[in-house]
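User: Some background: our group keeps a shared notebook of sequences we're curious about, and every so often someone picks one and asks for a predicted structure to add to the entry. Today it's my turn. The entry only has the sequence so far, pasted here. Could you supply the structure so I can complete it?
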Amino acid sequence: MPMYEYRCLACESRFDRLRRMDQDDADVTCPHCQSGQIQRRLSLFATATRSGAAPVEAPASASGGGCCSGGCCSARTA
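Assistant: Of course. Here's the predicted structure to add to the notebook entry:
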């Protein structure tokens, strides 16, 4: 289940809710003022890596360039 971030349009507080993707926001209310005037916020997501491991970068093919991530193509063009 994804975590969604919300902003209350009445009191400007921000909060989050763990909700199924198929649920709409009709029953979400602000925990501070109980208003139903909420707005879902665009949020980023995080992934976990092994402890001490460097962040994983997207392979070259994911950005639309390169044929592999093995380095063989860059060796030919260098």
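Suggested note for the entry: The domain at 1-43 is CATH 2.20.28 (Rubrerythrin, domain 2). The CA atoms of residues 28 and 34 lie 9 Å apart.
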